[in-house]
Specification:
The protein has about 110 residues and is mainly beta. The chain has strands at about 5, 10, 20-25, 35-40, 45-50, 55-60, 65-70, 75-80, 90-100, 100-105, 110. Strand 9 (about 90-100) and strand 10 (about 100-105) form a beta hairpin.
């Protein structure tokens, strides 16, 4: 199974930006889709965005136009650029690798607050 390590979370004011990174190791990266999910306190985990091996992207309606998912196959890393952040974006963000088995990272906290 692929190991995933997220980074880049933190505290940001409403309207601010953050870029999350997800470094993958231990498996094939370029052939499989990568994704991001999030879980807010007291809520179920929800899908945020996906990028396929061909770089086709899809987004949840709640983040469309504000978040951008990308990947760098040479660095085996995926990214989530988050702009115009809102308090409702506060959550633990998880990276996923959709190989023969889906792998999950440990999560990184994003807090949007003034």
């Amino acid at each position: 199974q692929v190991q995933l390590v997220e980074s880049g979370g933190g505290l940001v004011q409403p309207g601010g930006s953050l870029r999350l990174s997800c470094a993958a190791s231990g498996g094939v990266f370029s052939l499989y889709a990568m994704g991001w999910y999030r879980q807010a306190p007291g809520k179920q985990r929800e899908w945020v965005a996906t990028i396929t091996s061909r770089r086709t992207t899809n987004y949840a309606d709640s983040v469309k136009g504000r978040f951008t998912i990308s990947r760098d196959n040479a660095k085996t890393t995926s990214y989530l650029q988050m702009n115009n952040l809102k308090p409702e974006d506060t959550a633990v963000y998880y990276c996923t690798h959709h190989g023969p088995q889906t792998s999950w990272g440990q999560g990184t906290q994003v807090t949007v607050s003034s």
